[in-house]
């Protein structure tokens, strides 16, 4: 069984292979091109889990039945399957292209969400859902991780992770 963690804030992917509950191998890669290669070029199909924990210790997760990132020519278009639970904020980002400070691909014509938030993401709205952001109390609310469907307001997140799991059927 393989678990793949996209380490937020570091733009790295960590592959962790578990063999009979013993850690066997760990490899780190960087960038969206590697996400593209992993999720579209190898004949495998991946589900996505996003885990978040706020400053009060509340932890929630959101599962998506499918996750893929297209190539640079499509501006790393995000493809998500249906959400598997009610903690969905990332679903709005389905079909969005990846925006960066110098490459505005979000649907807003009046602003570049990546500039406003100081980081790249598949923005649907500048603050609806963003995980590539600062975490903890030392960041302004505009520069923090945000998850619009979170059950509390005025929180900051101390933990966020995106994890891929190979779909058995895929």
UniProtKB/TrEMBL annotation:
UniProt-listed SUPFAM superfamilies: Fibrinogen C-terminal domain-like
Transmembrane segments annotated in the record for this chain: none
Signal peptide: 1-24
UniProt keyword S-adenosyl-L-methionine present: no
Domain of life: Eukaryota
Keyword Signal (UniProt): yes
Keywords of this entry: Signal
Pfam families: Fibrinogen_C
InterPro entries (alphabetical): Fibrinogen-like_C (IPR036056), Fibrinogen_a/b/g_C_1 (IPR014716), Fibrinogen_a/b/g_C_dom (IPR002181), Fibrinogen_C-term_domain (IPR050373)
Limits of the Fibrinogen C-terminal domain: 31-168
GO cellular component: extracellular space
The protein's name in its UniProt record: Fibrinogen C-terminal domain-containing protein
Organism: Paralvinella palmiformis
């Amino acid at each position: 069984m393989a678990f793949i963690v996209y380490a937020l804030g570091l733009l790295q992917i960590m592959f962790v292979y578990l063999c009979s509950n013993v850690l066997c191998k760990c490899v780190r890669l960087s960038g969206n091109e590697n996400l593209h290669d992993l999720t579209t070029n190898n004949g495998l199909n991946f589900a996505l889990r996003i885990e978040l924990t706020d400053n009060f210790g509340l932890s929630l997760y959101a599962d998506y039945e499918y996750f893929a990132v297209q190539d640079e020519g499509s501006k790393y278009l995000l493809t998500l399957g249906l959400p598997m639970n009610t903690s969905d904020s990332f679903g709005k980002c389905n079909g969005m292209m990846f925006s960066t400070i110098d490459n505005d691909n979000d649907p807003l014509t009046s602003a570049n969400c990546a500039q406003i938030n100081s980081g790249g993401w598949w923005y649907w709205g500048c603050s609806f859902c963003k995980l590539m952001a600062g975490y903890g109390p030392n960041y302004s609310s505009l520069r923090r991780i945000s998850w619009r469907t979170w059950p509390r307001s005025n929180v900051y997140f101390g933990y966020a992770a995106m994890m891929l799991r190979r779909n058995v059927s895929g």
